[in-house]
């Protein structure tokens, strides 16, 4: 019987990268126990089942309910609770993303077990798992041990490696999870889901991020950053300073209260490097900072620092990259 239940995140019928990161966490937390996966929404093709199995899932449950088409916290909570019961899992691992984290908290409350939210890592000592959570914008780390009942954990995307493919996966197909007897409670009514216009490349999963801060001076100032991001095949992000000033949408915000990104290359343009911003990007592999102020704190975390005007430097970079 699986010991761990992973709540899959998907987009357009494909698992999001974070789903594979959750499988890594499941294997680390329970090296000898099986892993079940809950899929919410339309059952995907056999290729997805095979992919999940090859990365460690031994049982696949799918809640293909009409109530899960648009976000509905009650339906999500029911799906997670029924999957816990069906799988018999003692540990539930989900992504710390909206809106899933809302439903995980509700399910955890229902089972009365321990709950560790927003974890970035785990450690195993003497057969016990400690879930590590950053506090105070990453200045401190809390290690939380969940000792009773069914435990629930949410993990920030982009912190653990994605589970790799192992060649010896047994064939696994999705099993349908029936809705609750009597139907999903109807205390919450979702009237409309308005799709937000997003960047071409998903910021959370982009391998290259070009981010702008208050130094871009206005919405128009993001144009050279978009051109650079396009030339590199990356996504555009922003500091909260830029979002607060109305230069861009809050969906682009990176940091303690925004998205956490760990791309291969992060180019910070006109961003001072406040601790709350660093909390969202300091684990990027290579950091390039462009800033007119040689004393800007962002240079302390940068691998390459360019002291100068972003409006001169960024177009030069774009031009050079387009030549290649
Ligand atoms: P500034 O600090 O104003 O820096 C602008 C920089 O641009 C300066 O360094 C300047 O030298 C440079 N510059 C100006 N003109 C140019 C030019 N032409 N070329 C090159 N460089 C130029 N912030 C986040 O980013 N993310 C968060 O999630 C976040 N969460 C927060 C949560 C809390 C509870 C609090 C209190 C704050 C949070 N903040 C967050 C805000 C954070 O403290 C900073 O205020 C914010 O990051 C500053 O944004 P900035 O670097 O764009 O602006």
Automatic annotation (TrEMBL):
InterPro entries for this protein: DHS-like_NAD/FAD-binding_dom, ETF_a/b_N, ETF_a/FixB, ETF_asu_C, ETF_asu_C_CS, Rossmann-like_a/b/a_fold
Source organism, top-level taxon: Bacteria
Residue ranges of domain Electron transfer flavoprotein alpha/beta-subunit N-terminal in the record: 4-192
Gene3D superfamilies noted in UniProt: HUPs (3.40.50.620), TPP-binding domain (3.40.50.1220)
Keywords in alphabetical order: Electron transport, FAD, Flavoprotein, Transport
Family: Belongs to the ETF alpha-subunit/FixB family.
PANTHER family in alphabetical order: ELECTRON TRANSFER FLAVOPROTEIN ALPHA, ELECTRON TRANSFER FLAVOPROTEIN SUBUNIT ALPHA, MITOCHONDRIAL
Protein name: Electron transfer flavoprotein subunit alpha/FixB family protein
Gene source species: Paenibacillus thermoaerophilus
